[in-house]
Amino acid sequence: MTLFVNDLTVIDFSYFCPDRGPVGESWIVDLTLDGALNDESMVLDFGLVKKQIKRIIDDSVDHTLAVPMQADISLTERDDLVILDAHFGAKHHLAMSAPLQAVSKIDAPRIDEQALITHLIALITPQLPVNVTGMGLHLRPEPSNSFYYHYSHGLKKHDGNCQRIIHGHRSTLGIELDGMAMPRLQKQWADRWEDIYLLSAEDQVEATQLQHIQAKEGDLCSRYRSTQGEFELAISAERVEVLPCDTTVECIADFMAQELKREYPDKQVKVTAYEGVGKGSISYA
What we know:
alpha+beta; Tetrahydropterin Synthase, Chain A; 6-stranded antiparallel β-sheet; globular; 6-PTP_synth/QueD; 6-PTP_synth/QueD_sf; EC 4.1.2.50; 6-carboxy-5,6,7,8-tetrahydropterin synthase
């Protein structure tokens, strides 16, 4: 007997790629469970699936930086912190210090759907009842007919896991001028923010202010303390856009709208920015 649950949850996270650096991603999770019927004539109660299995996924990977442990990186733990130092692409650098729960360590040379599926199945399987004999996971992006970009950020004012300094999303983007969709402008912004790190100006610091990591020449740096602890970041400036505001999706949409309004002052601007799947913000200018 097979039980299935589509759209069980969405994993919003970033992963480190040796070529692209930190990549914001949003994957929808579909689940199947194989097994015999229990005393309630079920493989597993849907309520338990949505509560127990979803919680394991959310607590383990969601809103973290997933790190491929077989890649050429330096990852150490000191006190309650995890410290990452790595190079990516031809010349880029990334260093991060964060509380331990801000990182997911994945035993793979690269992060892709299958590597994450293997990791999650290993976490979930020991916690399933004995009548469940097999499990399948499928990870997929949201279907989209529009342009999108991958972004990473951290929200120091957030009480939850969004405060983690490198987590991210796959963001679909809509731009309209005077009510007309503008695919050309959508592509321009998708290209501008491909694999971007969005940094709030108020969180930017000098390299000398970092306490746990070391910046390289050409890095932009960030440091803040929030409810989960202390966070530090140094990343190649070419991969960053500094915003004069917070990097919530509301502020991102408004930033885009104001930038476009300056470019098209005689037009009514509408920006629809997504934060992962099925949620986001609309801003007008």
